[in-house]
Amino acid sequence: MKALVFHGPGKRVWEDVPDPHIQDPTDAIVRVDAVTICGTDLHILGGDVPEVTDGRILGHEAVGTVVEVGSGVQTLSPGDRVLVSCVTACGRCRYCRDTSYGQCLGGGGWILGHLIDGTQAEQVRVPFADNSTHRVPDGVSDEQMLMLADILPTSYEVGVLNGRVKPADIVVIIGAGPIGLAAILAAKLMSPSHIVAVDLADSRLDAAKAFGADVVVNSGRDDVAAIVRDLTGGLGADVTMEAVGIPATFEQAVALVRPGGHVANIGVHGKPATLHLEDIWIKNLTITTGLVDTYSTPTLIGLVDSGRLDTSSMITHRFVLDQFEEAYDVFSRAGETGALKVLLTASS
What we know:
The protein is α/β, with parallel strands linked by helices. Helix content is 28%, strand content 23%. It has helices spanning 39-45, 94-97, 129-132, 142-146, 151-161, 178-188, 202-211, 224-231, 247-256, 277-280, 297-305, 324-332, 334-337, and strands at residues 2-6, 12-16, 28-35, 62-69, 81-84, 123-126, 133-135, 170-174, 194-199, 215-218, 237-242, 257-265, 286-288, 315-320, 341-345.
């Protein structure tokens, strides 16, 4: 089969690799019908995730069709249409029992495209398949479902729920890329009074406005702190979310929140960020980080299935699998191309 293979920082190739096979009784082999690229994949290619080694197939999001199951798989059969979750769960360890699947001790967690071969391929082996896939409801498209593999549960759990967004809150989201836009959609479920989106690219701020942001701020031109002070009577935001993954935006998120407020870090960081305790020790802040656990995926599937949450508008560019190199180029130059999420399918 063909797959997108990592060969060290900055090196990726769509090439021939062996087909996956059942290794454990709880495995399933899934034919990839739709897949996307995550900002985390760009961090890997940038050398920010050294655990990813030469030869690894990238990717941790897919919708596909089950083609084979191990003898221990109880809820799936060949032909089933499933979402492959970005997080794998053994279902038995302490963390899985607490629904903290991202911290799985039994061989799960974030492993696809990280510690084992991932989804940017024609087929993928999914460990602990009963716990790590979700059936696609009839009438829900592949592209709608695909957004629930990672960015929607990440923004909802790590951003909105960890940040404790409440009705009438003022929420500032720094970064209007795919995860920031997903955070806007997720925050709207909690009925905040204002959502403020901050970014350097006007194209992404236009997208943020379309996704439901009440105020958009270009941090390259505008005084973000002054705008937030004016909006909040000088207090600062109730909740800030960092959705970029660089030191400057994390420090900005801390600076913009009010005393007693919440800072939810969603971004993937490859470098240290300074925590200015000399300024904030007195402010009673709550700062949270997190890898998504995907415990909310069934809830989000229900919202999509009922029409309460529309994710399809996040996809701006469409390709077939053989165009993976081009798709990466478009996605990595999002400021120029306007790419939000790219969709790759097995056929046009």
